[in-house]
Design a protein that fits this description.
By secondary structure, this protein is mainly α. The protein has 9 helices and 8 strands. The protein folds into 2 domains: 103 residues, no CATH class; 122 residues, no CATH class. The two termini are 29 Å apart. The mean pLDDT is 87.
Length: 270
């Protein structure tokens, strides 16, 4: 096991020494340095949950190289930098530095980007298969784009399943709650779905638990539903955007070469 880890580290170092990967190497080194600084700080203040997130981030940083090394694909430098920045933004900035609460729509920005990236990966999987000599298929551009879109949406849904499971079993708050001031529900007057009770301009709600209470001002707490739907909607937008680009890329590869910066491709045999 240690021998394999040592060999993997050696290949990782050699990979970032290659001329075409030097820009990625610089970016990777800077982000890794920032994560290590954050890790040291979290150790000193005794926040071991954040220590785990830092260690997880360092592991996630090597995933692009692992995929290239294991499956013999080439991840374009632009896409690799975006993936590294996405991981850093989600774990270090979002979770540890609390950007999810400090910066409005931070979560939505990341989910939009996730939809775009997942569509790019799904697109590349089908495009590689479509162009190989070993598999005799010829899929239409619209079908490849549709598969890429569906792949991205599936990834987004699975992630929401993960958030819901973590919140349910571990009492986390991955599905961020939202304060809203309107209720529309048939349960308030036992009517049918076409005649709900509507309550507007809710000023505050009070939650009673045991002998204690807590007051929520300016509305009531929606438990994760709005966050989940917003995440899926922006994932949809990101996936749709790339799928459209992918469609035109297959139709006119010479005119849309810039899209190749976001599409992993099979390594050519030397």
């Amino acid at each position: 096991m240690f021998k394999k880890a040592k060999e993997f580290k050696k290949r990782l170092v050699e990979y970032y020494k290659e001329e075409e990967n030097k820009k990625v190497a610089i970016f990777y080194t800077v982000l890794r340095f920032l994560v290590i600084l954050c890790l040291i700080r979290e150790i000193f203040i005794g926040n071991y949950h954040n220590v785990f997130l830092c260690l997880l981030t360092l592991v996630l940083f090597v995933i692009p190289f692992f995929i290239e090394d294991k499956f013999q694909v080439t991840i374009p430098n632009v896409l690799e930098i975006i993936i590294l920045l996405f991981i850093f933004s989600a774990e270090i900035l979002g979770e540890i530095q609390n950007f999810y609460n400090i910066i409005p729509n931070w979560d939505m920005i990341l989910h939009t980007l996730n939809g775009f990236l997942a569509a790019a990966i799904g697109f590349s999987l089908i495009d590689i298969l479509n162009r190989t000599d070993k598999v005799h298929i010829a899929l239409s551009p619209i079908f490849v784009a549709l598969v890429a879109f569906c792949f991205s949406m599936t990834v987004g849904v699975i992630w929401e399943f993960f958030e819901y499971t973590a919140d349910s079993l571990l009492s986390t708050d991955m599905q961020k709650d939202t304060i809203i001031n309107k209720i529309s529900s048939v349960n308030l007057k036992n009517s049918n779905a076409f005649d709900p009770e509507i309550i507007k301009d809710i000023n505050k709600t009070t939650i009673y638990y045991g002998n204690d209470t807590i007051t929520i001002h300016d509305g009531y707490l929606d438990i994760g539903l709005i966050d989940t739907m917003e995440d899926l909607i922006v994932n949809f937008i990101g996936a749709l955007f790339f799928s459209i680009l992918g469609y035109f890329y297959i139709k006119h590869r010479d005119k849309y070469k810039g899209i190749e910066h976001f599409i992993p491709r099979k390594k050519l045999k030397s």
